User: Which sequence fits this backbone?
């Protein structure tokens, strides 16, 4: 939906994607837009509009999504590397029972749509939890500054 709206419909940038990343056990979502023509404010506004409109996409019945995610989490690793990675995840979390994925699936299955909407509002729609990082093509030799007036990080 993010790609479709910002890249295809609005043609905001030639690189547009959404990804997740966990840093020190803190999950985060990254909304990436690289544009040769749109301003920082245009991109920021488009992302905010997308976030505000997307809450309604959370369905009342999450069972299909839960089943899909649970199946993916519990599938047997197909390579030695994948198996080692799964064990290493548990080692990093000091989980001697090596049941991190099993417990995660239990938690996923306990979530309902009201809880998911509340989480969405408290994280993605909460301006105090958002960080904007802006860079241009000359960033390699610049230092990072934070602009409180504009509420984003920018290379200077």
Assistant:
């Amino acid at each position: 939906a993010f790609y479709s709206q910002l890249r295809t419909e609005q043609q905001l940038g030639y690189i547009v994607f959404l990804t997740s990343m966990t840093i020190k056990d803190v999950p985060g979502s990254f909304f990436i837009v690289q544009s040769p023509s749109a301003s920082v404010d245009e991109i920021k506004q488009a992302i905010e509009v997308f976030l505000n409109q997307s809450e309604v996409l959370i369905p009342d019945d999450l069972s299909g999504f839960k089943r899909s995610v649970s199946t993916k989490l519990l599938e047997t690793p197909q390579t030695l590397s994948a198996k080692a990675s799964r064990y290493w995840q548990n080692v990093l979390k000091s989980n001697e029972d090596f049941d991190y994925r099993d417990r995660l699936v239990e938690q996923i299955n306990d979530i309902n749509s009201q809880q998911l909407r509340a989480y969405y509002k408290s994280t993605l729609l909460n301006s105090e939890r958002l960080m904007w990082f802006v860079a241009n093509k000359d960033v390699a030799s610049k230092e990072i500054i934070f602009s409180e007036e504009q509420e984003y990080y920018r290379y200077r």
Notes: Residues 40-54 form the longest helix (15 residues). Strands lie at 15-23, 26-34, 133-134, 144-147, 152-155.
